[in-house]
Amino acid sequence: MKKLILSISFLLAFVMLQAQTPKHYYVKITTPKGESVLQLNNETRKHRDNFVKLVKEGYYDSLLFHRVIHNFMIQGGDPDSRFAGSRQELGNGGPTYRIPAEISPSIIHKKGAIGAARDNNPAKESSGSQFYLVQGRVFTQAALDSLEQFRLKGVKLTPLQRETYSTIGGTPHLDGNYTVFGELVKGLEMVDAIAAVKTDDNDRPYNDERFSMRLLTRSEARDLERELQGLGPKKGLSKLFDSMKSKEYKLP
């Protein structure tokens, strides 16, 4: 009887562990100026899945942050940048497809957000590969008042925007115009370091700022989510069962 109970307990534990799929996809960005970890939003599924696909394919490996503006953002994802000449103008490369806009008033351009670059198409469809990481700046309430009056032409910021941009900072004038599809959960310092480099008249860094990306495995993602909750990594049987699972996982 005890053996049966023990077997059932192990089976239940195994089933429960199988159900512990990470809540998000996470991407590690590696540069000579540090590493960051990006959490992709489930609310922007089209952008999320496209980005995961490209990362898995190695599409972003050894590309450049080809457009850098201090107190604004760092932009990359142009495949033409992989073998670009030293002063070659960049920013027009990428897949032939666009991604439909997934713009939400609750997902804004706070510092560390990742947004999808685009041209001036009226549907606000996104580039298939180019993205930017927001640096921005912190605004006073008076500066936000001025932004509403002049740049936003009377459009009022939401309480979320005012709270975020007066504490964390970001680029509020981009809200509603570009799709934000994730945010950095570790390594904001990397964005600050790259945003501080010297650039030419086209905002391209004089010294190439390359990056690579990889998708975190199931185990790495689960450990990261525990870390973000203030918990330690899994140990013992929990870790053993986790090692038996596929390294990859799929979100709905």
UniProtKB/TrEMBL annotation:
The keyword Isomerase applies. Keywords: Isomerase, Rotamase, Signal. The keyword Hydrolase does not apply. InterPro entries: Cyclophilin-like_dom_sf, Cyclophilin-type_PPIase_CS, Cyclophilin-type_PPIase_dom, Cyclophilin_A-like. It comes from Sphingobacterium zhuxiongii. It holds the Pfam family Pro_isomerase. One of its GO terms (molecular function) is peptidyl-prolyl cis-trans isomerase activity. Residues 1-19 form the signal peptide. GO terms for biological process: protein folding. CDD domains: cyclophilin (cd00317). It is an enzyme of class 5 (isomerase). Its EC number is 5.2.1.8. Residues 31-205 form the PPIase cyclophilin-type domain. This is peptidylprolyl isomerase. Belongs to the cyclophilin-type PPIase family.
